[in-house]
Amino acid sequence: MTLSIEEIEKLVEKLDKESRAIKTDLLRMTWYMRGGVSYDDVMQMSAVERELINAVIKENIEFVKKSKMPIL
Prior knowledge:
Helix content: over 70%
Number of domains: 1
Number of strands: 0
């Protein structure tokens, strides 16, 4: 498989955006866990584990919103 310089540049940009999105997600997860896990802990988790934790976080956020408790 051969790619032109432009195709390589586009691929690198795409991968950079994906990498940044993952890192942002990991940092957000670490913040929501309030010290329950470190950034390194989250980095070591599988994609499935991170997906499941994100689902739990979203459920809890919705619960807090519905209960009208203050979100810290």
